Amino acid sequence: MITAIVMIKADVARIPEVAEAIAEISGVSEVYSVTGGVDLIAMVRVRGHEDLAEVIPGHVNKVPGVLGSDTHIAFHAYSNHDLEAAFSLGME
């Protein structure tokens, strides 16, 4: 599983609508409204790198109100939770 952290700059007047639209995209597991240099952070979890192209530039960046994004791909997860098992239920 590939995890990407997507930092999103959004139209300030549309942040709630933008966040909700992004949260509905397949492959997006969470969207956070945050303080700082970006407005939203989306967690994207997909099977392969090619899927990132479908989700991020193909869908996230095309949501009306998204002004730009910066994507960070995770190399390794350090967690007490077994994320791989949580996201692989029912999938081969």
Write a structural description:
The protein has 92 residues and is of the alpha+beta class. The chain has a single domain, classed as Alpha-Beta Plaits, CATH 3.30.70. It has 3 helices and 4 strands, in the order βαββαβα. A 4-stranded antiparallel beta sheet has the order 2-3-1-4. The model has no long low-confidence stretch (mean pLDDT 90). It comes from Streptomonospora litoralis. This is AsnC family protein.
What is the structure about, briefly put?
By secondary structure, this protein is an alpha+beta fold. The protein is 23% helix and 33% strand. The model has no long low-confidence stretch (mean pLDDT 90).
Overall pLDDT, averaged? 90
Major sheet details: 4 strands, antiparallel
Helix/strand structural class: alpha+beta
N-to-C series of helices and strands: EHEEHEH
Q: What is the CATH C level class, in words?
A: Alpha Beta
Q: How many distinct beta strands?
A: 4
CATH topology: Alpha-Beta Plaits
Give the termini distance in whole angstroms.
12 Å
Shape: globular
The whole-angstrom Rg is 13 Å
The order of strands across the largest sheet is 2-3-1-4
Give me some keywords for this one.
single chain, 92 residues, alpha+beta, Alpha-Beta Plaits, four-stranded antiparallel sheet, 3 helices, globular, Tscrpt_reg_AsnC/Lrp_C, AsnC family protein, Dimeric_a/b-barrel
Please specify the SSE layout and strand pairing.
Blueprint: E1 2-10, H1 15-23, E2 28-33, E3 40-46, H2 49-55, E4 66-73, H3 83-87
Antiparallel strand pairs: 1-3, 1-4, 2-3
Protein name: AsnC family protein
Pfam families: AsnC_trans_reg (PF01037)
Domain Transcription regulator AsnC/Lrp ligand binding: 6-75
